[in-house]
Amino acid sequence: DIQTTQSPSSLSASVGDRVTISCRASQSIDIYLNWYQQKPGKAPKLLIYAASTLQSGVPSRFSGSGSGTDFTLTISSLQPEDFATYYCQQSYNIPWTFGLGTNVEIK
Amino acid sequence: EVQLVESGGGLVKPGGSLRLSCAASGFTFSHAWMTWVRQGPGKGLEWVGRIKSNLDGGTTDYAAPMRGRFTISRDDSTNTLYLQMNSLKTEDTAVYYCTTVRGPGRVNYFDYWGQGALVTVSS
Questions:
Q1: CA separation for the pair A46, B112 (Å, rounded)
Q2: How far, CA to CA in Å, does A48 sit from each of A36, A37, A86, A89, B66?
Q3: Could you tell me the sign of the dihedral formed by the alpha carbons of A102, B100, B64, B61, in that order?
Q4: What is the C-alpha to C-alpha distance for residues A40 and B18, in angstroms, rounded to an integer?
């Protein structure tokens, strides 16, 4: 199975900060990496698919990059509604797998 | 508007069975690949399994911990997705989400999610 390792597991940031979250795959997965945001008590929400394609309706402050084994989710200017947990997910091979998540907290 | 509504969750004893349903609307269900994702209390997301559309063969795949115990099926006549769970274990306690699967080839992502159904396995 392909493992996806996120870092950091949590971070504290302030409104307006630039935030980057990393996801590393245990083998090359080309661009088959998606990002989700989850707020407490809510279902996850798709942010980015195929490493860098912004899902419709998602603010442009979110961006994704990377290919192969190393990927990054960037929030260019953190907003109050962005405090949440973020997950990466690979779709290169079944079983599809998620990272353990990165909790973005208010500093 | 796409809607996915799960039902059938509840409390079940270890070794028992439960069937979850997911009522879909707002899109052409018969053309859609669907998946179940679960989240244990205080834990991250875990992919459970996927079913292709009947147009694409209707085949299923499962994560290893669920294989042989869980079965995903669909009824395109009623736009309903099912998850039959047998031989339940305490570690199956989780919120179970149904999702749509989009994308060509390996570009598979989960774009719509239900609100989730809580399954508690406890004696």
A1: 8
A2: 7, 10, 11, 10, 28
A3: negative
A4: 26
Task: Tell me the three state secondary structure of residue A25.
Answer: strand
Q: Do A94 and B106 touch (CB under 8 A)?
A: no
Transcribe A36-58 into DSSP letters.
EEE-TTS--EEEEETTTEEPTT-
Contact B63, B72 (CB under 8 A): no
CB distance B45–A46 less than 8 Å?
A: no
Q: Which residues of A touch B94 (CB under 8 A)?
A: none
In the numeric block, the tokens 């947990």 are attached to A85
Flag whether residue A36 sits within 8 Å of chain B, measured between CB atoms.
Answer: yes
Rounded mean pLDDT for each run of 10 residues along chain A, 107 residues in total: 97 97 98 98 97 98 98 97 97 97 95
User: A10-13 and A102-106: which strand pairing?
Assistant: parallel
pLDDT for res A97: 97
Chain centroid to Cα A94, Å, comes to 20
- Is A32 in a helix, a strand, or coil? coil
